[in-house]
Amino acid sequence: MIDREFFLGFVKIHILYHAIKEPIYGVEIMRELARHGYDLSPGTLYPTLHRMERDGYLVSRREVVEGKARKYYRATDVGVRMLEQSKKQIMELVREVVDEK
Amino acid sequence: MIDREFFLGFVKIHILYHAIKEPIYGVEIMRELARHGYDLSPGTLYPTLHRMERDGYLVSRREVVEGKARKYYRATDVGVRMLEQSKKQIMELVREVVDEK
DNA sequence: GGATATAATATCGCAAAACGATATCGGGCA
DNA sequence: TGCCCGATATCGTTTTGCGATATTATATCC
User: Could you tell me which residues are beta bridge partners of residue B70?
Assistant: First the structure.
């Protein structure tokens, strides 16, 4: 994947965004992120999800779907606010480095 | 500062951008970043600059200005290409999470 | 010309995150 | 019960992040 040092924050914002729209689980997120060019290994993704839950951005619940135990994450209010702030920072970045004022 | 885990990549992109426009030095970058809400300590900034140079995004040269030894950084071709890719990723992120398609 | 002031950069030491690889879990079904 | 398989978790090591502190280099003043 494209240099993680620059883009791992993007990945976390993607995760937040999807976890607000609907409950998501690990493997599904990995596929979704891969669609955007972010190929994370489980050794990166799962600890990231755990941290985001520990820090209050996400909450999880177990669920069995088609005989498989999944862990669905959804965003908390804190997570929603974090995404709002992220959007502001993104647009600030766009104005500065993309828009070539 | 606003949760670094999400935004440290933004900081690096800012640095690249400025180092393309003109040579920049540490303290100046810190002030510039502070303008955007990113308050880094030198213990974070300088190792970051060193890494970006080690990884080929920046090159530095010493210079004495008004009796003070500064280390000016400017972006390499690799750095320029990295910023181009960053812009693409930024706009991709905007389409996904900001534009609310 | 040695001491001092000051802007600027560098490092230290610890804690936390990142990561690929590997292991483990848990439910259905033969 | 044993096995398969989607899915999650952990292990061990390297790298990064960070505040605090130290060091460097130049000019100025006595």
Answer: B63
Q: Is the pLDDT of residue B101 over 70?
A: no
In terms of Cβ atoms closer than 10 Å to its own Cβ (0-12, 13-18, 19+), residue A91 is middle
Which stretches in chain A have pLDDT values below 50?
A: none
Instruction: Name the residue ranges covered by the structural domains of chain A.
Output: 4-98
Look at the block and give the residue holding tokens 């599904």.
A28
H/E element, A21: helix A4-21
Q: Which residues in chain A have Cβ-Cβ distances shorter than 8 Å to B83? A: 97
Chain A to chain B, count of Cβ pairs less than 8 Å apart? 80
pLDDT of the residue at A1? 63
Q: Given 1.20.1250.20, 3.30.470.20, 4.10.800.10, 1.10.10.10, which CATH number is that of A4-98? A: 1.10.10.10
**Residue among A17, A7, A16, A46 at smallest CA distance from A30:** A46
Contact A6 B5 (CB under 8 A): no
Question: Strands across the sheet with B68-75, in order?
Answer: B24-25, B68-75, B58-65
